[in-house]
Every structure is written in C-alpha cells, then in structure tokens.
C-alpha cells in the first residue's frame, strides 16, 4: 500500500483511505452501521518540530496508521492532527487506543525523541445519537484530553446542555431566521454547529 503524496504542502489523495474531510462527511451519512470517529493530536508539537510541522511528520503518522488497521479511513484535520473513521463492529475503542500507542512508539523511534498524542473518540449511536454530531463529540473529547495533559484518551459522553444567554445583533437574528426556514433546521442547532466549526478550526490550528 502506498502512502499519501504531498505536493506543495497539500496531501494528494492517491491513497484511497486518505480522504478530504467532505468525503469523510459523506461516509458518515452513508454508513448504516455503528460509527467510530476519533481525532489524534500531537502533544507539544511546536516545541518538538517548530511552528510549521514538516510535511514528512504528518506523512509518517498517516503511514503508521494506515499500516495498523485496514478498514479505517483518515483525513488531516489540523497542523498536527489526523481524524479516523471506522464503520462496523470488528474494532473497538481499545483498538483505537492501541493505534495511538503504535503511532507514539514508532514516531518516537523515527525521530529519536519522546512523542505523545492525545485522542478523542466518539461512537454512534452508543453515545452520539445524531450522525452529523459525531465529529463535534470527538472534538469535545479531544479537548477534554488536552485539558488533562499529555498522552490522554477520552471517549465522549452523552451531551450535557447548559443554558447560556448571549446578545445578537438584530441583523444576525434576521439572517439566522432566514437560514433556519430555508434549511428546515432549528435555530439552536445552527448556532451550535457554527460555534463547533469555529472552535474546531481555532483549536486544531493552535
């Protein structure tokens, strides 16, 4: 099996198990089975490799991951993070933990220094009840892992809602109402999704 080719800092999708995120999203909706989604994020990466992570580092992470299990699909989701999706019953949370350990061990050997990762895992429908929320649940779990320290794994728990009052501009509420009517989605869901997407972008690039 080949490994992803990097052209100008962008991963060429020559490997059919390394996909762009929109293709992963399509897979999530298409799966009719149990879905496991996880994010693996390198600890202390700026101190280990500098502000800009060399392309070969992500390439090596992907190669190790691809060689470990055959039926997991991956995407690059941050400067030092990858996400994986698996649909089925053969692999469990313990297998994903073993995958993280394998990546840590081999990356540490390659670069001759200790390299650890944090992981966040979400499972549909065991915990996450809506397919389209599975990425956000995994990101929440990853954030919890990062808050605990290095080399942590967190499996998402059932979502806990908390009321928080905020002010919006009138024009924002008009646009929100229009978009909700157009898409048929509740306004609260639209706001939560937008916030999740913004936080994911900010947290994974930091």
How is this structure best described in words?
The protein is an alpha+beta fold. It has 2 domains: 5-159, Alpha-Beta Plaits, CATH 3.30.70.270; 161-206, Arc Repressor Mutant (Orthogonal Bundle). The protein is 47% helix and 18% strand. The chain has 7 helices and 7 strands. It has a 5-stranded mixed β-sheet, with helices on both faces. The chain has a two-stranded antiparallel sheet with strand order 1-2. The protein is globular, with a radius of gyration of 18 Å. The model is unreliable at 1-13 (pLDDT under 50).
Q: What proportion of the residues is helical, as a percent range?
A: 40-55%
Bulk shape: globular
Number of helices: 7
Q: How would you characterize the largest beta sheet? A: 5 strands, mixed
Beta-sheet strand percentage?
Answer: 15-25%
Number of E strands = 7
Task: Tell me the name of the CATH homologous superfamily of the largest domain.
Answer: Reverse transcriptase/Diguanylate cyclase domain
Tally of separate domains: 2
In the sheet with the most strands, the strands line up as 4-5-3-6-7
Order of helices and strands: EEHEHHEEHEHEHH
Structural Rg? 18 Å
> What would the average pLDDT be, to the nearest integer?
85
Class by SSE composition: alpha+beta
- What fold name goes in the CATH topology slot of the largest domain? Alpha-Beta Plaits
CATH architecture designation of the largest domain: 2-Layer Sandwich
Ends: how far apart?
A: 32 Å
Q: Regarding CATH, which class of the largest domain?
A: Alpha Beta
Unreliable stretches: 1-13
């Amino acid at each position: 099996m080949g490994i992803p080719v990097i052209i100008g800092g962008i991963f060429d999708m020559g490997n059919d198990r390394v996909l762009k995120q929109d293709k992963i999203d399509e897979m999530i909706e298409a799966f009719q089975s149990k879905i496991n989604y996880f994010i693996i994020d390198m600890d202390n990466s700026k101190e280990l490799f500098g502000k800009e992570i060399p392309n070969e580092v992500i390439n090596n992470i992907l190669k190790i991951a691809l060689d470990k299990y055959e039926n997991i699909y991956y995407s690059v989701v941050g400067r030092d993070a990858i996400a994986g999706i698996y649909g089925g019953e053969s692999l469990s949370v313990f297998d994903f933990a073993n995958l993280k350990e394998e990546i840590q061990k081999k990356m540490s050997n390659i670069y001759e220094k200790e390299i650890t990762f944090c992981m966040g895992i979400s499972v549909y429908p065991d915990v996450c009840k809506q397919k389209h929320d599975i990425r956000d649940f995994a990101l929440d779990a990853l954030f919890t892992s990062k808050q605990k320290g290095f080399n942590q794994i967190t499996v998402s728990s059932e979502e806990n809602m908390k009321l928080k009052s905020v002010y919006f501009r009138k024009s924002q509420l008009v646009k929100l109402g229009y978009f909700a009517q157009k898409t048929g989605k509740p306004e609260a869901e639209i706001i939560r999704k937008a916030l999740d997407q913004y936080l994911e972008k900010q947290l994974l690039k930091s």
